[in-house]
Amino acid sequence: MTLLAINWSQVGLQAGYLIFSLSILVILHEFGHFITAKWFKCRVEKFYLFFDPWFSLVKKKIGDTVYGIGWLPLGGYVKISGMVDESMDKEQMKQPPQPWEFRSKPAWQRLIIMLGGVTMNVLFAFFLYAMILYKWGDTKLPMANVKDGIWITDSLMHDIGLKNGDKIIAVNGDSIQYFNELPAKIILGTQITFSRDGKEQTITLPPNMIEQLVEKKGKRSTLLMPRIPVIVGAFDSSNSLNAQKAGLHVYDRIVAIDSIPVQFFDEVAPVLNTKKGDSITLSVVRNQRPFQLRTLVDTAGKIGFYVMNEEQADSLGILKQETKKYGFLASFPAGVVKTGEKLNFYVQQFKMILNPQTGAYKGLGGFKTMASIFPNTGWDWEAFWNITAFFSIILAFMNLLPIPALDGGHVLFTLIEMISGRKPSDKFLEYAQIAGMVILFALMLFANGNDWFGWGKGH
Length: 459
Known about the structure:
Low-confidence stretches: 1-6, 455-459
Oligomer: single chain
Keywords: Hydrolase, Membrane, Metal-binding, Metalloprotease, Protease, Transmembrane, Transmembrane helix, Zinc
GO cellular component, one term: membrane
Cofactor: Zn(2+)
Mean pLDDT: 87
Subcellular location: Membrane
Number of helices: 13
Structural class: alpha+beta
Membrane topology: Multi-pass membrane protein
Strand order of the largest sheet: 6-5-7-8
Radius of gyration: 27 Å
Number of strands: 16
């Protein structure tokens, strides 16, 4: 019962993170449309967080606009008079155009209104990254400080030819300066250059590596970590054979298990797996003083302690990190650079999803995947704002796709009108809106079905 409660607590926390994050982004996106529409004297009939078919949870009319919260948490909308949108208000479109309507405005004004939401999301991401850098700085682990090489935490990395202790030199011929860059570089890369026993080697990554990751472990997978000594970082309180009860302390260093030497954490599991259900002797060093203690190994091959986290390893000087601090003014250009880097990373991912050879579409996820990105052990403002900034970039990019019903579809039709001088008919826009909504609903269904049922994985 306790384990079930903990799991539901984690699910609830991550769901709270996601709803809060998306609510902020939706409100800001719609505010971008709202403020530009008001700027050009368009009447805005509704401003809603979430959708409100049949009824609203909250609503209040102020001036010409009804502000409200719907019950269907799939986004939000502003209803601008005289615009063909998700409201599909055909009766209004049958009436003669009015001066306050969207359709009565010049094409350049309508274009700005359509780009208002995307612009707001990009500006918000830039602002968030700037403030994150100003508040917390930018902490990275230099590859030069990963002195013991990598720890392979995914079997696929073993399958392609990497081993524990390898020292990564470059991906696609580009040297890796910080370990934090490595996982993303590998996912998007084709070649890894590394050093093993002092000899430089190169391996080629399979083009469908993402597909293999999804098939093996789902959409989230830690490929590798820095290799670190066997130093206790924390204890598993749910383990009835907890090594803490046997006398083990945080920061104790285990150097042997039943006289079998262990230097690195990746060497522990193979030894414990041969001792399941048995009592073992741990050779431990605490404050430079060696001693031994006895403990039990459970049937899963665990004794109830966790590896050090990054902060603990940094404090011991084992994985010394660098933190670059930014002043208030310096944080803004740095925020622009970071926004550009994150946007480029997402565009590269999107290209892989569109390429059937990579199988990356199988890793496409919905709300469950999005929620799983957030921490599940407590509220972390730095993590929350970092993830929200990245989601803001994704929302901006996705809304610019030239799909009817998205901002990008409206932008495309408006640009064609500006170039050709011919405005699409309302009937054409209605049909395009319906087609776009069907496409978006199908994509949403696939992504969330992939989350829960693995629709894209095949058999």
